[in-house]
Write a structure and sequence with these properties.
This protein has eight helices and no strands. The chain has 241 residues and is mainly α. The protein has one domain. The N and C termini lie far apart (59 Å).
């Protein structure tokens, strides 16, 4: 459980950046769409409303100035989002094509698991390197051939892949049941809820897998060390008899 002091620290340190992200990805697109819809129509208003989130992603990409798995994933999302606007069609088709970017990323997770190069491993190491957790990143690198560790990475990658595809399926239903303005609100919220839920599960599962793996390796090491001692004692007793 997080105590009050820790919660207050998280709010003070992460709150402003999270509020800014909400404003850029939820509030600003809705305001732009509402102002532009009557004058320019649904499609052009949607294109205009998508500008702040894409610019925000581009700024974040440039700000980190590091070519790793995380930045490549963000860059791929930006490029695919831009390509989604050149296919023509109505507002709902535009919404679906933009959401398919998430589906393609989900498919990338599944493919990486199928070829035994789980994407979650690359993303985790990139995140640790960005946060300065060099020792933890090196620890992950040493464990990359451990069967338990690889299985955990594969499971987490599969969950992310199927979770993102589920996100797309939910969005497809919302596109045809809500108005464009309602969809902008609901999809933005759902777009935070689903990844946040998967991220929370990932954090729990990773801690659980790490604890089990550490315990198993400690037990194996203990058994390896006690084995020679037991053999030596047995040989000594045999010699005395």
């Amino acid at each position: 459980m997080i105590d009050a002091a820790r919660a207050r620290e998280l709010i003070l340190t992460k709150g402003p950046s999270f509020a800014l992200e909400i404003g850029i990805n939820l509030v600003l697109p809705l305001v732009i769409y509402s102002l532009a819809e009557h004058r320019y129509g649904e499609v052009r208003a949607l294109i205009a409303s998508s500008a702040p989130p894409m610019l925000w992603s581009l700024v974040e990409f440039i700000r980190h100035r590091k070519l790793d798995a995380l930045s490549l994933l963000v860059l791929a999302g930006i490029v695919l989002s831009l390509l989604a606007f050149f296919g023509g069609g109505g507002a709902r088709m535009l919404q679906l094509r933009e959401k398919l970017v998430t589906g393609l990323i989900g498919v990338a997770f599944l493919i990486s698991a199928a070829i035994r190069r789980p994407l979650i491993y690359q993303l985790a190491r990139a995140g640790m390197a960005r946060n300065g957790s060099i020792a933890e990143a090196e620890r992950m690198h040493r464990l990359k051939d451990d069967p338990r560790f690889r299985r955990a990475m594969t499971v987490m990658t599969l969950v992310w892949g199927f979770g993102l595809i589920l996100d797309v399926a939910i969005a497809c239903v919302l596109v045809f049941t809500l108005t464009v303005k309602q969809y902008l609100i609901v999809n933005s919220i759902e777009g935070y809820v689903v990844p946040s839920a998967i991220a929370a599960w990932t954090f729990w599962y990773a801690r659980r897998s790490r604890a089990k793996g550490d315990a198993a390796r400690a037990a194996a090491q203990s058994g390896h060390q006690s084995g020679p001692q037991s053999d030596h004692q047995s040989d000594h007793q045999s010699g005395r008899s």
